[in-house]
Amino acid sequence: IDFLLIKEPVFCKKCSHFVSEKSCGHHQLNNHVRISGSEIRQNIREAKLPSHNLMRPEIMKSLLDMDDEIFIKD
User: Fold this and answer.
1) Separation CA 74–CA 67 (nearest Å)
2) Which is more confidently placed, 4 or 26?
3) DSSP structure string for 23-64
4) CA 61 – CA 74 distance, rounded (Å)
5) C-alpha span between 20 and 57 (Å, rounded)
6) Contact 52, 33 (CB under 8 A)
7) d(CA 50, CA 41)
8) What is the number of other CB atoms lying within 10 angstroms of the CB of residue 43?
């Protein structure tokens, strides 16, 4: 097993896709948008597609197809 020691993935406005700090050097120019897990979970609860810089639409559609099985129940 090889560990990939990277920080969180971000959306780069300049590259126009999801990147890590190792794959994109535009972080100094304030082009990176942090991905909010809380915002994504809220979008799932409301069955809304998030903006393109949070998650790819096809991924969200797959998650929404899971219905109630997506979240762990108490």
Assistant:
1) 17
2) 26
3) T--GGGGT-EEE--HHHHHHHHHTT-PPPTTTS-HHHHHHHH
4) 25
5) 20
6) no
7) 10
8) 19
Q: Report the alpha-carbon distance of residue 29 to residue 25 in Å, rounded.
A: 9
For residues 55 and 17, the answer to whether their CB atoms sit within 8 Å is no
Q: For 9-24, what is the mean pLDDT? A: 86
What are the residues whose beta carbons fall under 8 Å from the beta carbon of 43, sequence distance 6 or more? 49, 50, 54, 60
Instruction: List the structure tokens of 62.
Output: 């797959």
Q: How many residues does the chain have?
A: 74
The first and second tokens of residue 52, run together, are 């393109």
Only one residue has tokens 């942090």, namely: 34
Average pLDDT, integer, range 23-37: 83
